[in-house]
Amino acid sequence: MKLYYIPTTRAVRPRWLLEEMAIPYEMVRVTMAMTKEPEYKQLHPHGKVPVLVDGEATIFESAAICAYLADKYLDKGFAPAPDSPHRAYYYQWLFYATATLEAPVEHFMFNILPNLPEKLLPGFIRSETSKQESYQWFQRVSEPVKEALHGKHFLVGNSLTAADVVVGGILLWAKKLGMMQPDDSLTEYIDNLMQRPAFNRADENYYAQVPVHSE
Ligand SMILES: N[C@@H](CCC(=O)N[C@@H](CS)C(=O)NCC(=O)O)C(=O)O
Hints:
By secondary structure, the chain is of the alpha+beta class.
């Protein structure tokens, strides 16, 4: 099994899950420049990471890769069984993460990146949403996550699932970008995730060293 990886990107998510599950994998380190080569486009149509190659399967989208891995190794306990009542919420948070929670974080990031030439910004960012608007948008979409985590350490059941890996991966990005107040109730959840040894192996201790962005 091969994982195409660039540090500090969404490729940390499947690597983190692989580390949690203690599954052997081959890591293929690529650079942003390499992902634009024609050969790489055969792995990912838009030249992005992560990509997982597992036998006949070549998969892109970080959440899909995490869901695939958690199901493939169901006995490791990182996805509820298909007939478990937890399965519904597991799907809910996995899809909520990339369809709803991540969008304002990405907008915010593109609004604070220093000196990013306008032409490099994705079209949807060039046109509208300001930094302040994305901040308020993020506050709104993070509310249901806060409610779900009230009095709990994990989103689904009593242990870490792929849903925490994906949601947590987005939230820690938001935290580092300065989208959260220090007293935000999600801080404890994120800090606990970041202390996990598997997370630190996966991100090579990078996020711990990135200061929280402030004005
Ligand atoms: N929705 C995709 C997003 C993939 C993505 O945008 N990856 C970024 C790194 S976080 C990338 O490879 N960017 C390189 C580029 O756009 O040139 C996922 O979750 O896998």
